[in-house]
Amino acid sequence: MITTINENDFIQAFKNMGRGEQFSREGLQELFKYYEEYEDSTGEKIELDVIAICCDWTEYESEYQLVNDYDMSIKGGLDEIKERTQVIEFDVWNDPKYAHKKHYLVMNF
C-alpha cells in the first residue's frame, strides 16, 4: 500500500519521529526533491524511512566542516568527495537581512 506525500508531509514525518532537528528545513526540502527526482527518473516508488534517511545523509554548514570531517581519508577536498558520493549544495536563508549560507548534504560513505 502506497501513500503519496507532499513536501510538508515529508518534513512533518521527521518531526513526528523526533528527528526534526537532524536537518535544516531547507535541507529537508532538498532531500524531498532528491527523492522525488529519483522516483521520477527510475519509476521506482520509495518507502519513506526517516531513520534510514538520517543514517544515509549528513548536513554540513560549511565546506570547511565537510572537508574536515573526511580529511583523514580524503585530501582532494570537496571535488574528491563529489566523485565518491552524492553531494547536494544549497543555500540556507537564516537572517532577516537576507544573508545566506551554503550548506551541503552528503550521502555518507
How would you describe this structure in keywords?
single chain, 109 residues, alpha+beta, three-stranded antiparallel beta sheet, 5 helices, 17% strand
Give a concise summary.
This protein is an alpha+beta fold and 109 residues long.
How does this structure look, described?
- This protein has 109 residues and is of the alpha+beta class.
- The chain has one domain.
- Helices cover 46% and strands 17% of the residues.
- The protein contains five helices and three strands.
- It has a three-stranded antiparallel sheet.
Radius of gyration: 15 Å
Count of helical regions: 5
Instruction: Summarize the amount of helix as a percent range.
Output: 40-55%
Order of helices and strands: HHHEHHEE
Strand content: 15-25%
Structural class: alpha+beta
Average residue-wise pLDDT: 90
Query: Separation of termini?
Result: 31 Å
Shape: globular
Largest sheet: 3 strands, antiparallel
Q: How are the strands of the largest sheet arranged?
A: 1-3-2
Number of domains: 1
What's the total number of strands? 3
Low-confidence stretches: none
Task: List strands and helices in order, with pairings.
Elements: H1 7-16, H2 25-42, H3 50-56, E1 57-60, H4 63-69, H5 77-84, E2 87-93, E3 100-107
Antiparallel strand pairs: 1-3, 2-3
